Amino acid sequence: MKELFLVAIGVMIFVVIFQISKASEYVSILKGEEKTRRQNNKINAFMLISFLVFGLIGAWYCNELYYGKTLFPQGSASVEGEKIDLMLYITIGVTGVVFVITQVLLFWFAFKYQERDGKKAFFFPHNNKLELLWTTVPAIFLTVLVVFGLKYWFKMTSDAPKDAVVVEITGHQFAWEMRYPGKDGVLGKKHYKQYNNPSGNILGVDFQDPESWDDLHTTEMHIPVGKPIKLVINAMDVIHDVGLSHFRMKMDAVPGIPTTMWFTPKYTTEEMKTRTGNPNFVYEISCDQMCGKGHFSMRGVIVVEKQADYEKWLASQKPEYFTLFPDKDPNKATQAVDSAVASKPLAQLTPAN
Amino acid sequence: MSSAIPLHDVVSHGAHDDSHHEHHHHETFISKYVFSQDHKTIAKQFLVTGIIWAIIGGLFSVVFRLQLGYPDQTFPWLEDFFGHWAKGGKLDPEFYYALVTMHGTILVFFVLTAGLSGTFANFLIPLQIGARDMASPMLNMLSYWFFFLASVIMFSSLFVQTGPASGGWTIYPPLSALGDASMGSKIGMDLWLVSMAMFIVSSLLGGLNYITTILNMRTKGMSMTRMPLTIWALFFTAVLGVLSFPVLLSGAILLLFDRNLGTSFFLSDIVVAGKILPNEGGSAILFQHLFWFLGHPEVYIILLPAMGMSSEILSVNSRKPIFGYMAMVGSLFAITILAFLVWAHHMFVTGLNPFLGSVFVLLTLLIAVPSAIKVFNWLTTLWKGNIRFTPAMLFAIGFVSLFISGGLTGIFLGNSALDIHLHDTYFVIAHFHIVMGVASFFGMFAGVYHWFPKMFGRYLNNTLAYIHFWVTIIGAYLIFWPMHYEGLAGMPRRYYDFSNWESFKMFNGLNEFISLVAMIVFAVQLLFVFNFFYSIWKGRKVTNLNPWQANTLEWTTPIRPGHGNWPGEIPEVHRWPYDYAKDTKDGKDFIPQNVPIGADESTDH
After folding, report:
1. Which CATH code is given to the segment(s) B38-556?
2. Is a pLDDT exceeding 50 seen at residue B19?
């Protein structure tokens, strides 16, 4: 009923506006069309300059409201991301100046050079000097932006340091799986056709390969603070994307084409809780590439902790090999904390809503 | 060539009044309004179809904005409309994604490509270069009817049981290739691909015709450098379309093969819904290259006509020549070339080779140079003008403002280092909606308001037009400006609900505000549509051959030109189209293109 009422109001407003507009057309014919046109011209010129003033105030007000909610007051949570923040500030500086100058000129000219009686426009078809000026000046500024941008880009996309902690992350509809290489530091081989062999082996790890025997499979990512972390990124079904907005990092997960990315976390999760003033703060992995109906619920969690805590956590995990082949486990009695999840059948993972 | 008959008639009856064609004995309702070969009628067909699609596509955005703005509420009437897609008055996520996908597809292709460039290329090219019709009126007619067929197929996909395509308008495989991965990737996706194939045929038929017409059928004296900037823009638009749409066609066909014939062009190493697929060796990234090789030029296919029309309208209503005509043409040319060389900037985070990425950064930021030239030239055109704020002029000024705002954020996204953070966030949504969506719409509105008197012999209602402009520009900034902040917070696009995310849930109030404004802006567009259709029949009649006192040739035709455009001989052109503000003996501030150069006049152009 409420909706019908709203629609009725909408239609009425429509009719009223239309009637007024129609009436104003008749009035303008009575008053003389040329006179009405000149009046409208003045009104619109004034509105254009008002739009500029209120627009600039509005932009400032919007910044007051929302700057605090962006990620920039708290700074980048990774060492590499600092470069992105710096790049952002440089770009905002350059484009901000251009933005204000051009918008002010646009609306100011429109207002100032509105039609006036007996005035004629200035015949000014071209001027090579001016045109050369605004070809070269933007080109110079852009060169600066390109140079800085590419410097940081090559730094971020370079090979990860040799001592980086390696974690494999695999996306599927609609969750993330992590794999750690275990004590040998090498991830065991896998092939997608090994999926569910044995049942529960959703990552398709090839357990013929002895290097896989100490690999850990978890759903939460734990990483040590202050050390370079290298992610090896896979996807099982469609394209996903590992989005780490606090670290300013992002990389697609493509089925059949592994990708990598690396970064050095600066703050532990606990430190971020105080830095952001949010006691519920967690580092979240957001899927940033449309992957199906559960895309919006494809959330992962990263716990950044001190080296000692990280090692303790690692030690508490049971290798997936022993979960899937319990009779191979030398100390069967030990309870694993996080390995139960590995046996959840993939097809039944559904979005949160 | 059946078109030769009416053309001959027009010439031989040149001395008669301009309504002679209405009682022409071969003309029936079908041949005049349905299967018409008159470029002006075809243009109107494109425009009306585009308007209908724009209402549908816009309505979809209002519906999914309800979900984003009011995630905790239910709207029982949604269930009345959408049935099981909105059980209990809440959109199903699958349907939400279908709406998002269709919104993008419809607006990008059916409205801003067909509706914008289809309309104005058809309408303006023959009229402004001085031709009686397109080079091939028959192919031109087919171009519309292939578009119509594409429309019917796409529209029918809205009604299939598994729903329309729902993988985003970019339809990346494997998601779009596997029915098991998403409901929308079942029959809805096949219909999407077939519809796009038809659309591409339409676009190619149209584009080849535009190019041929512009190159071969200009009237006497109309050298290339005397063409209005609208024609230059439409020419480059057609070139872009002809060279890049076939690449999308190949991608669409390969994807159809992958979907239905078991090939592996884009598929490899996939386990979906617990099933191990046999496909190996394909590359999902290959599709993105094929898609964006069209997808990026597509942005300029949408934008260039808006640039061309705004240039023309700014000059006419400033009563001043466009500043730097050759620089304007040169920058259009530069944008056209560069448009082909930047596609991979959509793929910086796909694992692209970093060196290759750096080349695309360089080429992408290079586009800012011709864009800057255009902006400064438009500003200088206004400088020391004598400006008339017709509705068309306001929309053209709005276009420049939006092009600046949206263009500058392109410098953020084109820089790969920043793109890592901003990619696929609301920052991207804000950027492309402002620069490509709203700005092009403003160009289109400017065009409609400016050439409506030529199309229908009547005026649109001015008061409604001013309301339309002011609500739309204020609304557009209110909707999209704050989205930049959401993007800087890392908020990902294409999310149905943010409430489970610690990092993104703080923007609820803002999302509600944006949804509210979007609804108001949409309602005002309906006001424009009403104005449009009402004025076709009831608008104030045009009594003046040249209501805007413009120089271009379309204003030398009768108020309601028949097929063939000029009842007598086609006028000869003696000058460029921007001789405004020159000193003339009769005290007028404009000299139309068909007026010979006076003895005391400089012969610059």
Report:
1. 1.20.210.10
2. no
